[in-house]
Specification:
Elements lengths: L10 H27 L4 H9 L18 H14 L1 H20 L4 H14 L3 E4 L17 E5 L2 E11 L7 E8 L5 E7 L5 E4 L13 E11 L3 E4 L13 H23 L13 H30 L8 H26 L9 H9 L9 H14 L1
Helix pairs in contact: 1-3, 3-4, 3-6, 4-6, 6-7, 6-8, 6-9, 7-8, 8-9, 8-10
């Protein structure tokens, strides 16, 4: 990692990071193509499946590796150094499995089946809750997607936005308003169910390779057991798995930092008798990048360690988890900005990975929780103490 501190603390974590680093190097060579074409990285996920990483967060009792949050974040940060969209997509899959393993909200039989599908058949899943009409689910909007119970089956109609991994998913977890009760339910749908289709709507400047297209549900009929839970308000449940988001953007920032340091060591304009690494302002910017990086990483991993080592105290981490996302994501943006200032106008060339890092890292502002929700949460706690 080019002089960046390795946060692995065990042999198994070091082996995980080594495996992920090898993949990240391969992914980095493909990243520009996937970005330019807005093409889903099928080849990357084929390699991830060969490396048997899809069951990292599945409990050992169900055949998985039983990795904790700390392990998960090490993987995310490392993969993102090679390709941010691939890491973010992988994070949704692994994170959902981790969250279900933590709170067990699904029927036991359903969770066992999905775990078996992942462990034995390398299946992929993700949720698709967002809708154009409601905006982010974190803001409490009720789904316009509907589910109606008819003769013991569910008939589901609606449209979902931001379905990351859409081209490769085997299972979609969607939210819908149950017509009979007005409750919001979560349903798990197999890809091959009749009436489920994908519309390619993902025209974005950031995270282009996630292919977060729209999911269309047109009279989808599924059995009664497709309902996996009736959703409750989750704001008061600590969501440790969401730290995969800042870990991903931190990985992008590390890649940008490394690119800028490499450039500073090698680039020597004819106006100088030495490479620009000797220029005081350049050295200052490198120092700033590393201070921000150290601060963000220590915050991220210290909270992850708390989560893993003190499960009975997780309720106390709600504000800290949100603060990690806020601090780390904004620091990642600032680090990429510093890197581009070091490289200068060359960083804007389409041939430079820095312009891709710049576009991708800004997507973190729009992943949950948003900055305003985090600041409001922290202020509420301070004022009510």
């Amino acid at each position: 990692m080019n002089g960046i501190t390795n946060f692995s603390t065990t042999k198994s974590q070091s082996e995980l990071v080594e495996k992920a680093s090898q993949l990240a190097q391969i992914f980095s060579e493909r990243a520009a193509f996937h970005d330019e074409q807005a093409a889903f990285p099928f080849d990357n996920f084929a390699d991830i499946k060969k490396a048997q990483l899809l069951d990292l967060t599945i409990p050992k009792e169900y055949g998985g590796k039983g990795g904790g949050l700390y392990d998960f974040l090490l993987l995310q940060e490392t993969i993102a150094q090679g390709d941010g969209p691939t890491a973010l997509c992988l994070g949704w899959h692994l994170g959902i499995l981790m969250n279900v393993a933590t709170y067990r909200p699904w029927p036991k039989q359903t969770f066992e089946h999905i775990c078996k599908e992942v462990v034995e058949h390398q299946k992929l899943l993700n949720s698709a809750h967002s809708e154009k009409e409601t905006g982010s689910p974190a803001r409490g909007g009720k789904p316009t997607t509907t589910a109606k119970n008819v003769d013991g089956n569910w008939i589901i109609n609606g449209r979902k936005s931001f379905a990351s991994l859409a081209p490769i998913l085997d299972y979609f977890i969607i939210s819908a308003t149950i017509e009979e009760t007005g409750d919001v339910g979560e349903f798990i749908l197999p890809r091959d169910v009749k009436g489920l289709s994908i519309e390619e709507t993902w025209e974005t400047m950031s995270m282009r390779a996630t292919r977060s297209d729209d999911l269309l549900l047109d009279n989808v009929i599924v059995t009664e057991d497709a309902l996996i839970q009736t959703k409750v308000v989750r704001q008061n449940k600590p969501q440790g798995w969401l730290l995969h988001i800042p870990a991903c953007y931190l990985g992008i920032a590390i890649a940008a930092r490394n690119e800028a340091v490499k450039f500073a060591k090698e680039y020597q304009p004819n106006s100088l008798p030495h490479p620009i690494k000797e220029v005081p302002k350049v050295r200052e910017r490198i120092g700033k990048m590393d201070v921000k990086l150290m601060t963000a990483r220590h915050f991220l991993y210290s909270v992850a360690r708390k989560w893993d080592e003190h499960p009975t105290k997780r309720e106390e981490l709600i504000e800290e988890l949100a603060a990690v996302k806020y601090t780390v994501t904004n620091s990642a943006i600032e680090i990429v900005d510093e890197a581009m200032r070091i490289v200068g106008a060359q960083s804007l060339q389409l041939s430079s990975p820095l312009q891709r890092y710049y576009r991708d890292v800004r997507a973190g502002l729009h992943n949950p929780p948003s900055d305003d929700i985090t600041l409001s949460l922290l202020a509420k706690k301070a004022l009510e103490e």
